[in-house]
Write a structure and sequence with these properties.
Blueprint (H helix, E strand, L loop, with lengths): L3 E2 L4 E2 L4 E2 L4 E2 L4 E2 L4 E2 L4 E2 L4 E2 L3 E3 L4 E2 L4 E4 L12 E4 L4 E2 L4 E3 L7 E4 L4 E2 L4 E2 L4 E2 L4 E2 L4 E2 L4 E2 L4 E2 L4 E2 L4 E2 L4 E2 L4 E2 L7 E4 L4 E5 L1 H6 L4 H15 L5 H11 L4 H12 L6 E2 L7
Parallel strand pairs: 1-4, 2-5, 3-6, 4-7, 5-8, 6-9, 7-10, 8-11, 9-12, 10-13, 11-14, 12-15, 13-16, 14-17, 15-18, 16-19, 17-20, 18-21, 19-22, 20-23, 21-24, 22-25, 23-26, 25-27, 28-29
Antiparallel strand pairs: 27-28
């Protein structure tokens, strides 16, 4: 199987293109780029040095991949931008490579980044993550596996978003979002479990029930977060899911999203 490069594209001879790669019209691939087998690169795509693109990916028209960070502390250090197998990058997405902080921005396998998404330097995005149109990530953001972020969402630098989370559209994410929940509104708040997402991923009912009980202590009791965590450790069986909730919250440096304040009736 051969590589197919459009006659108008420009591919540096030092770039490594595996079998089945196709490069569309007017696209540019710089040196120190590796593109895995059967990946399709559309028209007018710019892939800068440091890109490591997996197999069976699709980079659509106008995507800009592995450009230097928008960070005044960047000093030209060699760094990378990794994209996992099977990931789809839609139109006009911009992905910056890492700085000396982590030296790498990483996007996992089988992700979907919709049009106009921006991923800043040193971010880590897990597998199966979906970022809807115009999601913007600051530097050092971490998003765990199978999270979904709705459109037009801004995520503050250093924020952590847990696995199987759903973040509602048009939100500002200023604090960490713990795993398995729905977060929405202004300010961004806990809205309950991501029941639909958990069921689609075949979480058994007993696992969902344990997650729900853990978050009852965190959000729906009269205890503060530290007291809720203490109660979980004392009274619950620490399943893998519950253990992850506890560890995520205990490691949070920005604090976690709160419970929505309910207006009292008069």
């Amino acid at each position: 199987m051969s590589v197919n490069v459009d006659h108008s594209a420009r591919v540096n001879p030092k770039a490594q293109l595996d079998d089945g790669v196709s490069i569309g019209p007017f696209s540019i691939v710089e040196d120190d780029v590796i593109i895995g087998a059967n990946t399709r690169v559309g028209s007018n795509v710019f892939i800068a040095s440091g890109a490591r693109v997996g197999k069976n990916c699709h980079l659509h028209h106008g995507a800009v991949v592995s450009t230097i960070p928008q960070d005044l502390r960047f000093e030209g250090e060699r760094s990378q931008l990794e994209i996992g197998d099977g990931t789809v990058i839609r139109e006009f997405v911009t992905l910056n490579r890492g700085t000396k902080g982590r030296l790498k921005t990483s996007i996992g396998a089988n992700c979907l980044l919709m049009a106009y998404v921006h991923v800043a330097h040193d971010c880590i995005i897990g597998n199966g993550v979906i970022l809807a149109n115009s999601v913007n990530l600051g530097g050092y953001v971490t998003i765990e596996d199978h999270a979904f972020v709705g459109g037009i969402v801004g995520i503050h630098q250093f924020v952590q978003i847990g696995c199987y989370v759903m973040v509602g559209a048009v939100a500002r994410v200023m604090k960490d979002v713990p795993p398995y929940i729905v977060a929405a509104g202004e300010p961004l708040s806990f809205e309950g479990l991501n029941i639909v997402g958990l069921r689609r991923r075949a979480f058994p009912p007993e696992s969902i029930a344990s997650i729900d009980k853990a978050y009852h202590y965190i959000y729906q009791s009269n205890m503060n977060v530290s007291q809720g965590i203490k109660k979980i450790k004392e009274e619950m069986v620490l399943t893998d899911e519950v253990k992850h909730i506890v560890e995520f919250i205990e490691k949070s440096k920005r604090g976690i999203v709160g419970m929505r304040r309910r207006l009292s009736s008069t």
